Amino acid sequence: MAHTSKIILCPPEHRREALLHLAKSQSSKRQKALTEALKPMLKEPETAWQSLWVSLDRGRINGVVWVQRLPQNMAQLWLPNAQGDHISALIETARHWVMQQRLTLCHIELAPEATHQRAQLIAHGMQPLVSLRCLKADVGQRFPAAAPFTQLHWAPWDRLTAAQEHALMAAVGRDSLDCRELRDILSINDLVAGFYGQDSHAPVHWHALYVDESPSPIGALLLAPRNEIHRWELMLMGLVPEWRRRGLGGHVLNHALALAQQAGALELLLAVDHENPPAFNLYRRAGFSEYSQQYVMAWRG
């Protein structure tokens, strides 16, 4: 006779076993990300663990799912790389909770080869959000750009007022080919909060670009040191629409590479939307190469 797994909220005494079970099924890269996600949870009260579920088969854990709460009413789904009816039941439990909590967005990051996970998630109402190319370059690389036609001035991000920050991020994102689905869902405040959440040093390594002809900033450059791997990450670079297609993108990218090099990083990492060929071509001309791909899917609460 078939045995049906039981889905329960993870008891505190089984939490360590559950998290080890969840980590064991992840890739080495995802294990590191999961470890970082769990660090802040050590200081959280018991109520913060109300979104960790396990499936039990004859009293033993055979599956785990965790919905990690994020700022701005968002979340990330952590799912084991496994199949079966118990995994499907765990996904449905997580989906129901996300909808009940009215979260703006709950996303998961998947490798290209995780086709069975994508199929499982689609069956439970999760939608593809963005497909990313992950690129890297030695920090000594430079885009072959001619001298800029105007004088460029970089200013620390913290000199911007909240209103200026909001206006610049809105302008940089306008008509951008990167992550359009995400920009349609999230507000500017959500997006900014997301960048702050990805960098514990923010906005120390963030910069606003000015030119003599404009009293307002015309570009943004958001960098994050990843010192544990001796790399820096380029989280965002962009220009406001009226200053695009003037040959300035290469100079912004070169500034990012130079800053990372000065800090002693070995490589600069970034991710670009598959639907943004102009940006991909810019990075490729600067010596970036693709080392991975990533698919992001999400539930809208």
Describe the model.
The chain is α+β, with helices and mostly antiparallel strands and 301 residues long. It folds into 2 domains: 6-125, 3-Layer(aba) Sandwich (Aminopeptidase), CATH 3.40.630.30; 136-293, Aminopeptidase (3-Layer(aba) Sandwich), CATH 3.40.630. Helix content is 33%, strand content 32%. The protein is built from 9 helices and 12 strands. It has helices at 15-24, 28-38, 85-101, 115-123, 162-173, 180-185, 188-197, 249-262, 277-285, and strands at 6-9, 52-57, 60-70, 74-78, 105-110, 127-138, 152-156, 206-211, 214-226, 231-239, 267-273, 289-299. The chain has a 12-stranded mixed sheet, with helices on both faces. The longest helix is centred in the N-terminal third of the chain and has 17 residues, at 85-101. The two termini are 37 Å apart. The model has no long low-confidence stretch (mean pLDDT 93). Keywords: Acyltransferase, Transferase. InterPro entries: Acyl_CoA_acyltransferase, GNAT_dom, YpeA/RimI_acetyltransf. GO terms for molecular function: acyltransferase activity, transferring groups other than amino-acyl groups.
